[in-house]
Structures are given as C-alpha cells and as structure tokens.
Amino acid sequence: MTSTKSLPLGSEERAAGNGLISRRWLLRTGLPAVGALGLSSEMSRAEELRVPDWSSTPGLDLTSYGQPSPFENEVVRPTLPLFPEGIGDGSGVSFTPLEKLAGTITPNGLFFERHHSGIPEIAPEEHRLAIHGLVERPLVFTVEALLRYPMVTRTCFIECAGNSLFNSMDEPQQRTAGEIHGLIGNAEWTGVSLAHLLNEAGVSPSAKWLVAEGGDAAKMSRSIPIEKVIDGDAFIALYQNGERIRPEQGYPMRLVLPGWQGSMNVKWLRRIKVVSAPVHTKDETSKYTLLQKDGKSRQFTYEMGVKSVITSPSPGREPGAQGLYQISGLAWSGAGRVTKVEVSADGGSSWAEALIPDQTPARALTRFQLPWVWQGQSATLMSRATDETGAVQPTREAWYEPYAPNQLFHQNAIQAWAVSSSGGISNVYV
Amino acid sequence: MTSTKSLPLGSEERAAGNGLISRRWLLRTGLPAVGALGLSSEMSRAEELRVPDWSSTPGLDLTSYGQPSPFENEVVRPTLPLFPEGIGDGSGVSFTPLEKLAGTITPNGLFFERHHSGIPEIAPEEHRLAIHGLVERPLVFTVEALLRYPMVTRTCFIECAGNSLFNSMDEPQQRTAGEIHGLIGNAEWTGVSLAHLLNEAGVSPSAKWLVAEGGDAAKMSRSIPIEKVIDGDAFIALYQNGERIRPEQGYPMRLVLPGWQGSMNVKWLRRIKVVSAPVHTKDETSKYTLLQKDGKSRQFTYEMGVKSVITSPSPGREPGAQGLYQISGLAWSGAGRVTKVEVSADGGSSWAEALIPDQTPARALTRFQLPWVWQGQSATLMSRATDETGAVQPTREAWYEPYAPNQLFHQNAIQAWAVSSSGGISNVYV
Predict the structure, then answer these.
(1) What is the ipTM of this complex?
(2) Is A106 on the interface with B (CB under 8 A)?
C-alpha cells in the first residue's frame, strides 16, 4: 500500500492553497498519479477472492417494482413538520439527502417535499384542470386529454424559496448538507406546454398575469407574470424521471416554471385563472417576501440565485482516511447555465476552478469535482458558482447586507465547512 | 367542443400519408391549430370548479422515501421466469413497461431485470472488487475505497442482447411494447473509470482482454477487449439516477460499457482479470451467439444496433377518441447518436421525419414525436431510426436474412403496429 506521503504530484499540479489539485489532473487518461491514492490494497491473501455465501445459492426473485438495498435504508429524506400536531397539520418539509447522492438526477423517492396542508389523495379520473378568466373560451381538461397533447421533456431543478434558511440564523446550525440545502431536487420532467393550452383558450389582450391554484387543502396559489408562459418555458408536468409524477410532487400534475422559486411550481394544479394584475394571495404576502433593512418587503421574487454547495466532504460524510480525496458538489442558477465553480480549502484566501462538464445545462443541477490532498490539516472548504449572466454566488455577509435580521428566503450565500485535524466537519460562518 | 373534421391543417402541413402531420407544427409558438384538438371541453357547468373532498381536509404526511401513487399500481415490470420452479431458479427477466412511461429516463423501480441466478444479497462492507491477472500489482478495492475516487457521470442505455426476441418468432406475438422491447433501460450512472483502476494496477504489454465476473451464483462472466477500457468509456457504476445502484441492477457495483450488450455490463462485479485472449466463458458460448444460415455462429457481438419503437399508440395504449394524436417513441444506437427518426402510418409506403431534440445524446435513449390525425382509418404505424454512422434500422426481413431460424439476439428490426378502425392495436409483420 502506497503511502500518502509519496504522492507524485508536482507543484505544477497544485491549483490553490491547502491541498487543492488542478482539475486538469482529472482529465488525464489513466490518471498517472492515481496509484498514489493509497486506497486499494495489494492482493496477497488468498481469502480476498474467496466465494462469499451470496455467490453460492440462487438469489432473490424478480420484482415488479424495485426498491433500494436494505443496506441503504438510512438514505432517506429527513422530515420536519413545521407545527405541533393538531395545528397546521400537513405543513412541513422533507429534505433531499444531498450528501448521500451522486450525479445530478434526484431519484423520485428522495426528491424534497414542502407541503402546506399535506398530500391530497387525488383520483386522477376525477381531477380537472380549468383555464379560465380573461380568455375567449374557458376550458376544462381531464388527465386523459392532456396525455394526448404534444409533450416537452426537460431536466430542471425545483428549489424552495426557503432553502438554506438555517444559514440565516445567528449561529451556524450543525446539520448535514441535505438538512441545510436539501430543499432542492433535479428531475427530467415531461408534460404539456402551458402556452399551447392558453393559446387554445384564447388569451384576452388585457391579460397580464396568471393565478395558479393547487388542489390541496391549502389551495396554494401564486401570481405569475404571463411572459413566463407566452414565449416562455412553463409547462404542466405529468411525468417525473420517466414515470407518472408522485403524490408528494403533485400527482396527477404540477406546474413547472424552470428556475423559479419552488412554491410557484404549483402542485396538484387545478386551475389557471388569467387576470390583469397580481392578486396578492396569502401565499405571496404572508410568506415568500423578503424583508429589507428599510422595513419594506420585496415581493414577487421569482428567480432563484446562483448557488453551490460541497456535498462531499460535508457533515456526516467526512473524508475518513487521509490521502487524496475528491471534493464534489452541486451548482445551479435560476438564470441559466453555470459557467464556473471555484473551490477554496483555506477559507477563501485562494481559489481553484473545479471540473464541470463542457456543456452545463440551463436551470438544472451541475456536478463539480476537484481533487484534494487531505493529510490531517485543518481546512475551511468553500465553493463559489458563477452563471452565464456573470452573477457570482455572494458571501454570507454580502448576501445579508440588504435584509432585516432573520430574513430567510432566497439564501444563496457561500457555504463554508470547517474540517478539523481529526477529520470532523462543522458548519461555520466565515 | 370543436369537431375533428374542422382541423385547420392545410395540405402543406401533411408530412406523409394516412394522417401524419409535419413535425414543424410542434415547434410553432402556441400551436395555432391546437384549438382543433377537440380534447378539452368548454367550461360551462358549475360543477367543473367544485371543491373535491381531497381539497377540504389536510392530506397525508411527509414520507422518508416516496412511492408512486396507488392509482398507478399497474405501472410495473411484467416478470417472466425462464424455467419452472426448482430448475434454473432465479433465471428470468422483467420488462421496463415502455408504453407507460414518458421522457427518456427509466425510473429505478422500473428498470428491466435479467438475472441468471437471482439477485444476491450483498453486504457492501464485505464486498471486494479484485483486479488481477496480467498486471504489475493485483489490487483489491472495497466499496468505501472506490467512493473516494474521481467520479464520472453519464447517461446511457443498457439493452439486453435478447431484447425484442419475441419478434424473431414465426408468428407476431400479441404483447405490449414493453413486453416485446422492454429489456432496455436508460439511466444517469455515476461511478469510477475502469481505465483509472487498470492504470493503478499497471497493465502488462501482453494484456489484450479482460474477463469481468459477477458475484451472483451464476458468476456471469464475459470477455471484453481491452480497448473498450483503455482510451474507452467503461466505468464501474456505484450510483443510478443519483442514488446507490439497486440490488437487481448490481448493488453495490456493476460494470457499464456504454452501447454494448447488456450481459457484458456485469452486475455485482467482483473481479476483472486481465488476460491475453478471450476465455470463452459459458455465458458467451452457450448464449449470446448469433447462429447464421451457414451453420456458423457469430461470437463477441458487442454493440447494440440502431433501433426505435413507437410506444404510444401501442398495444394497451390505444388512441381512444378520434382526432389529433401524438405518436411518441424511443430511439437509440449502441454506435452513437441518433440523427433521424422517420415514422410511417401506411406500412412503409411513405415516411415523415419525427421531432427529436437538436442535440441527441450518444448511446442513450432519444424521445421522438409526431402529430397524427386518426379519424377511424386503419393504419400500420412504423418507426425507423438512423444513427450518426449512417446505419439505418432494418426491416424484419432484412434483419433476418443472414440468420438461421429462431436466431433471437440483437433483434433491431422495424416494429409495425396495426391500428384497426375500432382503434385496437396489434403486432404485425410487414
């Protein structure tokens, strides 16, 4: 077993302070230095190729609908009801466990939840979608009817406006990456263009806004400027990652407004009313407004900011053994494509560019990685994303600057993880 | 409700015979003619916007791992054990229900299975991957060690070499699209480049082939030319669609050889032996060879051919009401990108190009669609894919030409669905 001390990495491969290695190292064919990882062991003992019990007898049967391995039963969504039982029943969140996942797709079973009055049990043949208001022909659609329309397929994230709210608190909360930043999920959605349906109904010239209303008991309702739909990219999703959308994601249908705050992507969608002005529903006045220092609230903040988080290492996913490690994380922007992700291991003193795909997707999660040599030194790991508009993820201090204390929506500040010399990781503000 | 007779579609929008409409029609903003779909109904009755019971009381709680709606409990993998109980236990298949899905990702619960001796229940901390044979340093990897390596993320299909075998039979079998063509799935896989690991072990100059062996009781073993790995795209997948790979897909790890026949993507991978020549394992001599008319068998047929299938309409997913309908299906090629999909509604007399994305992915599923006016006429629907090498999906007759009767592997012939005047659909050979 090769010692981590003998890493044959020249200084030209150091990309920034405190052990960060150039992303170019990852692109080399055959990773010349990977023999120095010190992770494998040389095969010398006969038992290494022994035949385990599970290879000796026929295994389990075919199944009609598969489930994860029982050995992965801790990979779940942590749930957080927001009120005591009997008060506000069904209002709560569950978090995508970001630190336990890889790649960019969020599997359907682990896609975060935010409910305002629980998950309605909707019989699809009884569900109707109405389009009415300032239209020539008010229309009603069954699920079956929508399934006959042309379909759009698009991979994009949905992020709750309250994601990362724990980092608005005075003291850094010791929670996992998913429990802080996991009110986001990324999926391949398939559904019907809302522009097509509005066109069929015939929109009046005085129409400027829509109100989308959900079929849950909270009747989640949001005002949407019509430009996001006409000549825009809004659609009504019937499928998520190939299969029919699940109950907690809006079965049988939800609105998807790529890049815009989660609650506007109305679940269990039952009607779209075309109107001339925003209607200031309870869901856009009592919540989802941004209280500023001057005492005024910003309303109708749609687009989610440019953001990133290191998911590995992170609390609960510590580096373990010393040696070469791969820093990995997720980056996204509601404004378009991520063009750059930088990583620091020294609390922001120096930065190295992480490896991202040549073609990053718009308004969808991008995975970044960067090799890092951890030899027991303390470190402060941070990531900073830039998007195609040139917007750069802010520091926590800069993000907070315009806001009143405890303003918690649209929190997209840089996350810092402190790695101790023992390898423990904690959430810190820098 | 607009009559389907009044479809305002000029002759310039007819793309081919028997009701096929130009794909350009789908790209228009607002679909000018969509008002003629006749699918929605004008909202005139008060009860259309009634508040259903599920909107009146708080719904179900948050869940730690989500499941599909109970109303979708027929969306399952049809299972087909291949031997009677007590003989060849655990050898069988289950099919991805293609006709019930949309988009391109196959959800993990519905990704097809092919097991040769059931699903081993592998404890991940006890599992080892060995790389040995013609190497300088035989190596053993734990799952934990592999998780520290740089990761590649890639969306690609895996297709069983025996997919579509029912269409090799003398008479067309009356099965669904999934039950005929569903030994394929498409996922975002994340794992470790096998080239990196071989480089770490140090491959001998005499090395030309690998043998990959699974940890199931069948010890599925396949010979692989080393070029697919060195300077190639082979990797060891640990994650599928974001979460750890499921037991029936090879938990805790499987080999992925993008575009190559399914059984070479060895599940429950336990060792890679580097050798100088193919070893002719039972799994590449007793099966997966192609018997030709001259009595000789073709062996080591890796790459899956260019192929497509219309999933909607198809048996079990009939058009229902007359009017405008969206033909939709999947296309793929083991050789690279799909560049064109054509659709015929008149049994191949005339063809129209279907809509596919501007950028189609290599060795991954591509969704195609084309509008079709069905007004109760009988029709024979077919799709024909072309890939970036110029290969065109063959007719059944042309595909069968070199083979002996009942040769069933690498069946990529054009599928024809006959639509009757009543809207029933059957599998036909044309």
Answers:
(1) 0.95
(2) yes
